[in-house]
TrEMBL record:
GO cellular component terms given for this protein: endoplasmic reticulum membrane
Record-stated family: Belongs to the FMO family.
The enzyme's E.C. designation: 1.-.-.-
Cofactor: FAD
Protein name: Flavin-containing monooxygenase
Subcellular location as annotated: Endoplasmic reticulum membrane
Bilayer topology: Single-pass membrane protein
Database matches in InterPro entries: FAD/NAD-bd_sf, Flavin_mOase, Flavin_mOase-like, Flavin_mOase_1, FMO-like
Known function: Broad spectrum monooxygenase that catalyzes the oxygenation of a wide variety of nitrogen- and sulfur-containing compounds including xenobiotics. Catalyzes the S-oxygenation of hypotaurine to produce taurine, an organic osmolyte involved in cell volume regulation as well as a variety of cytoprotective and developmental processes.
GO MF annotation: an example: trimethylamine monooxygenase activity
Annotated source species: Mastacembelus armatus (zig-zag eel)
Length: 579
């Protein structure tokens, strides 16, 4: 690799990644990846794509992380319930260079998701880089870290044998659904409760709820799923919520998956042009048209786009049928009686389920490497600790957005490995810390955050930001002039990860076809009976074409205002002699 700076003698050894303090490069070749869930798998692949040698340490006996179902929850590992089906559609959750098979359902059961991850690992030959049943005990900077940027990783195998390794870089992919938050001190009298209580982390199915009176505390996606499933067998289910929630359906207009309909670039552009409160009003009005959140006792204290909503098609009907009764926050517990903030009470309660979220942490890392910002771990672009001398430690998958974590983790891994190789230089420590603090202020301003959910980002903005650093963000203006059919699909179609394989490092020749066939794969599992097709609405197509041309003009104007040289650069590709 070409050197950008002359090395300073006696400080760092000469190689790929530039030292922030002395402008000398360091070599990153061997990389430790902690965890073989989706974030770990895509990180292993990203390392291989950049010519590095990854070793992935996985504490369990299989890949998949959160999506590997086990009948008994195991300490310090993520856990899911038997019936769990993902609330992100398959086209929106898959990795950018391996579409999920067309015959797979749009919203997949956890067993199908795990099968897809196995396909991914087999296709890209990742398994040989994974060491199963190996726990990472500690990750520490080497004594010569200032010169080498290296880490010492101590692991323990299933027989209890410890081993020390030296790596040039480390990627942490251990997730954030590992440590259940069970705030018993916030529920006076819990020690007097005569029934059974547990965290949703321990929930596997409704078998123990038959004929019981159940209180579910918390109205997140897990709490909603457990309340709905339990209400089919329980005598009565009560769902307690402190703040309420907006509830949306997975199936929207014309039967399309929610995210394929609305998670698009054109919607994102409109968000940049119009005030957020307009969209809050519009979406809330639409939701209340389907089921009035005030009437259903669901109406939250926050606006719609301030927090990720509950995605649950069944919950409104279970409330309407009386199977689930929504209650305010629990004030106290007296034996088998649960008392709520409004003074109402439920007697003869048999089971309490705490769907109260998760704590997060990286117990194998020294506390000194983690920068605290507000209520969250402060990471530069949610990946790199900003206070390290060398950027050889990355956190991948520690992100929260109204979108699938898989493509976000993949983008983080692609960016992190480019940084490791020295293709992308990070700003100074002071600049990164300043950026982290600005992110924290923006998050606290735009979203409802707490100790348990301290982080949220806009899916499209975040993906595009990292993609821009890598050099893989699609150029809408270029597509408008050179490939209009593709431009229409990138602008109007769902924000699938294939868009980030059209150009630049890691370009995949199949990406254009994947974009053109994404709706074919969506329709395929629904084609179980031959029916007469509906006629195409040409008026609708004409309106959409007009709006597309207008959007292209808006994109050109935006580029002209914010990047005035881009137009001339683009035109030079067509008429080099005129520029």
């Amino acid at each position: 690799m070409k050197k950008l700076w002359k090395p300073v003698q006696g400080c760092c050894r000469i190689s790929d990644l530039q030292c922030l303090t002395c402008s000398v490069s360091i070599m990153v070749h061997r990389v430790a990846v902690i965890g073989a869930g989706p974030s770990g798998l895509t990180s292993v692949k990203a390392c291989l794509d950049e010519g590095m040698v990854p070793t992935c340490f996985e504490s369990s006996n299989d890949m998949g992380g959160l999506w590997k179902f086990k009948e008994v929850s195991e300490p310090n590992r993520a856990s899911i319930y038997r019936s769990l089906t993902i609330n992100i559609s398959k086209e929106m959750m898959c990795f950018s260079d391996l579409p999920i098979p067309a015959d797979y359902p749009n919203y997949m059961h956890h067993s199908k998701i795990l099968k897809y991850f196995r396909m991914y690992a087999d296709h890209f030959k990742l398994l040989k880089h994974i060491r199963f049943q190996t726990v990472v005990k500690s990750v520490r900077q080497r004594p010569d870290f200032s010169r080498t940027g290296q880490w010492e990783v101590v692991t323990e195998d299933k027989d209890g044998h410890e081993e020390s390794h030296v790596f040039d870089a480390v990627i942490c992919c251990s997730g954030h659904y590992t440590y259940p938050n069970l705030p018993l001190k916030d529920f006076p009298g819990i020690e007097t409760f005569e029934g059974k209580y547990f965290h949703s982390w321990d929930y596997k199915g409704p078998e123990d709820m038959y004929g019981k009176r159940v209180v579910v505390i918390g109205i997140g996606n897990s709490g909603g799923d457990i309340a709905v499933e339990g209400s089919r067998v329980a005598e009565q289910v009560y769902m307690s919520t402190r703040r309420g929630a907006w509830v949306v359906r997975q199936v929207v207009d014309n039967g399309l998956p929610l995210d394929m309909k609305y998670n698009t670039r054109i919607v994102h552009i409109l968000f940049q042009l119009l005030p957020i409160n307009f969209f809050n009003w519009m979406v809330e009005k639409r939701l209340n048209t389907m089921y009035d959140h005030t009437m259903y006792a669901l109406k939250p204290t926050h606006r719609f786009f301030s927090q990720i909503p509950v995605i649950n098609d069944d919950l409104p009907f279970r409330i309407l049928s009386g199977a689930v009764i929504v209650k305010p926050n629990v004030k106290e517990i007296r034996g088998s009686t649960v008392v709520f903030d409004d003074g109402s009470m439920v007697e003869k309660v048999d089971t309490i389920v705490f769907a109260t979220g998760y704590n997060y942490g990286f117990p194998y890392l020294p506390s000194s490497v983690m920068h605290k910002s507000g209520q969250r771990v402060g990471l530069y672009k949610h990946v790199f600790p900003p206070n390290l001398e060398h950027p050889t430690l990355a956190i991948v998958g520690f992100i929260h957005a109204f979108g699938a974590i898989m493509p976000q983790a993949e983008m983080q891994a692609r960016w992190a490995t480019r940084v490791f190789k020295g293709y992308k230089k990070l700003p100074s420590n002071q600049a990164m810390i300043k950026a982290v603090e600005k992110d924290t202020r923006d998050i606290e301003k735009n979203y409802f955050v707490s100790k348990l959910t301290p982080l949220e980002v806009d899916f499209v903005s975040y993906m595009d930001d990292l993609a821009g650093d890598i050099g893989v963000r699609p150029n809408l203006l270029w597509l408008f002039f050179t490939d209009f059919p593709l431009f229409k699909r990138v602008l109007w179609g769902p924000m699938t990860a294939y868009q980030y394989r059209l150009t630049g490092p890691g370009k995949w020749e199949g990406s254009r076809r994947a974009i053109f066939t994404q709706f074919d794969r969506m329709y395929q599992p629904l084609k179980t009976r031959q029916v007469v097709e509906q006629e195409t609405s040409y008026a609708g197509l004409l309106i959409k074409l007009s709006l597309t041309i207008m959007a292209g003009g808006a994109a050109a104007y935006y580029v002209h205002v914010h990047h005035p040289t881009a137009i001339s650069t683009l035109m030079s590709k067509f008429h080099p002699q005129t520029v």
